[in-house]
Amino acid sequence: MISPSSPETEAATQELARLLSHVALGDRAAFATLYRLTSSRLFGVVLRIQADRSAAEDVLQEVYVNVWRAAQSFNPTLSQPLTWLRSIARNRAIDSLRRTQTSPQTVTAHVGVDGEEVSPLDKLPSEQLGPLALLEQAAEQRQLAHCMQGLSHEQRQSLALAYYQGMSHAEVSQHLVQPLGTVKSWVRRGLSALKDCLERASAALR
Question: What is the CA angle 175-169-40, rounded to 5?
Fold first, then answer.
């Protein structure tokens, strides 16, 4: 069994990807397992942004509702499962924070003892990667950016909303004010073109 607190191994990554593929098919058992394996990590991500524990718990539920709806848009060739899940958690937490910022004390800066402005966000733990991981990530991002340029504007926009914002196809359709079938076609063809381009780039580096 994969522990949610264990390092991200290849086996753990593959298991999460497998669970997401089953969730996309409406598998509730896979969804329950995914929740058990990842909820503590995602709750930590949410708490770093939305410090109110009660609100954070509500956000976590929103995250998994979104995961259930958007699982079909996850593609392991574009993102690691946990990276994709964390992105959804961060976006939902930020949305929650914006909703609760009617109170100035929520996440506002204040003057510290040395007279400098201090923000509570400055105290958040760093999630920065190590040098080697950063180099690998930079190479992957360059390849992805190059391949993205080969897509149409509509395909790039649809993929960005689906993968970086964690939107479902229906939400992308509403956001772009386009028919659902059209959006699905943009995403499907965009993914196919990206996959081919990334595979060629990967083969060239071997």
Answer: 100
CATH class of 130-206: mainly alpha
Dihedral sign, Cα of residue 162, residue 168, residue 174, residue 179: positive
Over the range 116-138, which residues count as b (16 or more CB within 10 Å of their CB) and which as e?
eeeeeeeeeeeeeeeeeeeeeee
User: Which residues, including other chains, have CB under 8 Å from residue 75's CB and lie 6 or more apart?
Assistant: 163, 191
Q: Which CATH number fits domain 8-102: 1.10.1740.10, 3.30.499.10, 1.10.760.10, 1.10.3300.10?
A: 1.10.1740.10
Tokens (6 digits) for 194: 């990206």
Using 70 as the pLDDT threshold, list the residues of the chain that sit under it. 1-8, 100-141, 164-166, 201-206
The DSSP symbol for 72 reads: G
Cα→Cα distances 24→20, 37, 159, Å = 6, 17, 17
pTM above 0.85?
no
What CA–CA distance (Å, rounded) separates 141 from 47?
28
What are the domain boundaries of the chain? 8-102, 130-206
pLDDT in the model for residue 143: 74
How does pLDDT run across 108-153, given as a tens digit for each residue? 454 454 555 555 555 444 444 455 555 555 556 677 777 888 889 8
* Structure-token pair, residue 17: 């990807």
